Amino acid sequence: MTAAQPRRTVIENCALATVDAHDTEHPTGHLVIADERIESVGPGPAPTGLTGVVRRVDAGGHLATPGLVNTHHHFYQWLTRGLAQDAVLFDWLKALYPIWARIDEPMVYEAARASLAMMVRGGVTTAADHHYVFPRGSGDLLGAEIRAARELGVRFHPTRGSMDLGESAGGLPPDFAVETIDAALAATEEAIDTHHDPSPGSMLRVGVAPCSPFSVTTDLLREAAALARRKGVRLHTHGSETIEEERFCKERFGMGPTDYLDSTGWLGDDVWMAHCVHMNDADIAAFARTGTGVAHCPSSNARLAAGTAPVPALLAAGVPVGLGVDGTASNESGELHTELRNSLLVHRLAGGADALTIRQTLRMATYGGARVLGRADELGSLEPGKLADLVLWRLDGLGHSTVADPVAALVLGPPAPVTLSLVHGRPVVENGRLVTADEDAIARAARTESRRLARIAAGD
Q1: CB crowding 125-157: b at 16 or more within 10 Å, else e
Q2: Per-residue pLDDT tens over the stretch 283-302
């Protein structure tokens, strides 16, 4: 019996930013995709004599890059955008926790669809989400997210979060918004057993994700880390986001967030943390030594006045760093492409014109994110053998017409239209529109659920 003939897609005449180990770029080049993997990539036209070609794309005027990788998000927050507009993190959380504690499965499903749709139409092919609010009787919230991601065709890394440190015990969330340790751990293990797919090319990998040092007990952190390692999955949490968090950790535990998390087993090459804004040289060295990753969320950090993360120092130390949208209640654009530009500008404001380069920024959004999620062997660069998750950005329109360097046009210019986005070799965006879902219907449904949540939270 002979092997089945691969179905090939040929893309030609585009600029290429491969984001490989040498940052190889081609002013004009080609990609050949065989089924779900990249078969060849290089300068000039595709090889002649290819068989099984089902599609040819003349991509003149476009830049091809790896698909963007979003390393941190809270999908459910799509329903509460634009609230607590002038608050820092702790005040913002206190204002929104009572609303979030009323979410249910239909709300989370529509919020996830909207969050994913916004990212996917803007070049994201792999998305991580951190869901940690599980009101009693609210339904299968993690399952709702997974269903939405499957329908849209995006590669998904959901993390089952948890909170068990309520206000009465000195934590930040209201008591009715937290779980018991046993319930949180049992639900997390069930989520892994039900959904996690560790196979090569997986579209779905589940992580373990207690929320933060100020909403989780030490026991839950330790036991969650042990559970993750017993199951062979990755660990995710918030860390060093604000001065208030640092003060909380020092007052409660006698040490800063990095040392505290280290003491509970939360540093390692299977761990990534969101934000990591307030880190000293010793913290950075600990992350570098252990291979702990960082999800950098510049827009959310700015929106909540959390500060500027030491990303140039983290990169110089060899720490894995990816980009994150963060929840859309603190980054209302809900879109990752803006994080490239904002990251570059924020760090140049803080550290000078050479603090971060354009290509370092693109690398964070692609290969860096894949590294943070433990997928660098499969994702994040355009190389033969890697999964065919890639984006064609149109750069020949008005907004980018006079920028000769296509990577600079992508990072510095206005959001570039996505002509084609592939996940696992399959189109998810064509000519700027989702092909897997009706964007207008998603917007209407999300608006309906947002209004329903507001009415419930108001007691109507």
Answers
A1: bbbbbbbbbbeeebeebbbbbbbbbeebbbbbb
A2: 999 999 999 999 999 999 99
